[in-house]
Amino acid sequence: MKITICGVRGSIPTSGAQTIDFGGNTSCVEVSKDGWVLVLDAGTGIQQLPLTDLVNKRIDILLTHLHLDHIQGLGFFKPLFDPAMEVHIWGPASSTHDLRSRLGRYFSPPLFPVHFRDLPSKVSLHEIENSLFEIGPFSIQSAFVIHSGPTIGYRISDDHSTFAYIPDHEPALGREGMIKDIRWVSGGSLAFEADLLLHDAQYTSEEYKSKRGWGHSSIDDAAQFAHLAKVKNLLFSHYDPAHDDAQLREIFRCFEEKCNYTFKYEQAVEGKVIDL
User: Fold this and answer.
1) What residue spans of 29-160 are helical by DSSP H?
2) CA atoms within 13 A on the CB side of 276
3) Cβ contact 137:36 at 8 Å
4) What is each CA distance from 223 to 9, 173, 212, in whole angstroms?
5) Which helix (H) or strand (E) holds 248?
6) How does pLDDT run across 37-88, given as a tens digit for each residue?
7) d(CA 114, CA 108)
8) pTM for this entry
């Protein structure tokens, strides 16, 4: 499978944050193989999707949750306005409202001028929980993870490799921090022995102290989670919008100085392409 990183931010960068190298778009990743394309989250990065590997008229959008930074690119996604396209949108089930009504709040005035019912493409909505399903050559596992509101992560596998995508996640939440047995850690089944894990790393350890319960991880907790899950490669992502390029490099430098993990790790950069 081929993975293209199109958005790495937790929100649009705040005023003054320079993001030339890492990129300033919010969460979006393309996974493609054999002409099939999965779009993971629909942040502003969705406009950067290459879609060069798409050979059929179907696209699947897999949403982790419906916070604005993960759906704000949907209304500007061109395939939704193409009558020839079949667009499947997958998202977490909720006990209060169905997926259509929740997304319909975005696809309606005054937030957006076009209603869901007026989109010319063939749109299908799928609510998922702790689920197993297949799309083309991909076997997909979804599971609820710790984050504000109904939120899921994804484990995507083909015949050769496994990619775990958990961009908004706080596995260390609790009085004692992170449980050491990965079987009992939020998201553990999704990440276990994955070839590549993309994970929330919004804060430094010092910043996290005042932001416990906000639904995000420090870079150190993200690495510990990857270590417990025995992943082979880790991509840090979902950067704090207040961190500019220089700060992100310094955060990573400080992390490297004190860590001794044996798996490979690096910071996600917008535009990066990985053949997994």
Assistant:
1) 99-104
2) 29
3) yes
4) 18, 15, 17
5) helix 245-258
6) 999 999 999 999 998 888 899 999 999 999 999 999 999 999 999 999 999 9
7) 6
8) 0.96
